[in-house]
Amino acid sequence: MINELDQRALDFARALCKYSNKEEDFFGEFINRLKSSEALYREFVYYIEHQDFLCAMNIQGITIPDILVWQVDKFKSGIDEGRFELKYNPDAMLFAAFNTMYDVERDPDKYLENFRTVTGSDYEGKIKDH
After folding, report:
1. Mind listing the pLDDT tens digit for each residue in 6-45?
2. Domain count, the chain
3. Bridge partners of residue 59, in order along the sequence
4. Is residue 91 part of a domain?
């Protein structure tokens, strides 16, 4: 188990929270998540060192980049539907992907069906006129 987070991980986590416009309590919760999941911590440190994803943490075929792509797809759909502004925050998306992977690790069934069925992709009849 992880006893101490190294300073790079703390600094990067704090920066992600800051650039994601998250409050200090989000930082504390995120650090607690990293401390309690060795696999997530390894993924996070690998990302810091390589600016790439390790993908060793794989839950029923879902990796952190899969979550990130799913989020971006949903974001683009939200823009199409007028729910989001035209600007997105890549730091917030990265922060959310790591956070979501923690949730997936704890309760995979709650998330895996959404990842496989709820997409932002356009398809016939997706947006219904009211």
Report:
1. 888 999 999 999 988 888 888 999 999 999 999 999 999 9
2. 1
3. 62
4. yes
pLDDT of 33-84, one tens digit each? 999 999 999 999 999 999 999 999 999 999 999 998 888 776 655 555 555 5
What pLDDT is attached to residue 93? 87
Q: Does the residue 106 lie in any domain?
A: yes
Q: Where in the sequence is the domain holding 78, given as residue range(s)? A: 7-117
The answer to whether residue 127 is domain-embedded is no
Tokens 């600007």 belong to residue: 87
Cα 37 to Cα 41: distance, rounded to the nearest angstrom: 6
As a whole number of angstroms, the distance between CA 79 and CA 114 comes to 19
End-to-end CA distance of the chain: 52
In order, the DSSP letters of 38-98 are HHHHHHHHHHHHHSS------BTTB-HHHHHHHHHHHHHHHHHTTSS-S---HHHHHHHHH
pTM of this structure? 0.79
Q: Please indicate, yes or no, if residue 38 is contained in any of the structural domains.
A: yes
